[in-house]
Design a protein that fits this description.
Elements: E1 2-9, E2 12-22, E3 27-36, E4 43-52, H1 56-65, E5 69-74, E6 82-86
Antiparallel strand pairs: 1-2, 2-3, 3-4, 5-6
Length: about 90
């Protein structure tokens, strides 16, 4: 579970969090929960999707195979890992 905290909206406060359910090594289901009305009668919305998880090393190799250069992993900058790469200028 990853909590995003409480957000103030024009319609009231909303608690936001995600729940990740791992299916196997390559797939997980994600539920995004929005709990409205936390100061009164709560109402919950849930948005669900399935993701194919690609390991960082695999993604780095795919970028290189596709012709990208200067592939670099930038850890600890965002909530999730970030990869940056450059594409060479056309001849």
């Amino acid at each position: 579970m990853h909590a995003f905290g409480v957000r103030n909206t024009p319609k009231g406060r909303v608690a936001v969090f995600q729940v990740w359910d791992f299916i196997d090594q390559d797939h997980y289901d994600l539920g995004l929960f929005l709990v409205h009305g936390i100061d009164g009668t709560p109402r919950t919305q849930v948005f669900r999707t399935r993701y194919h998880a690609v390991r960082m090393g695999t993604l780095e190799n795919l970028l290189r195979q596709a012709g990208f250069i200067a592939v670099e992993r930038l850890p600890d900058r965002f909530d999730q890992p970030l990869l940056v790469a450059s594409r060479p200028a056309p001849p």
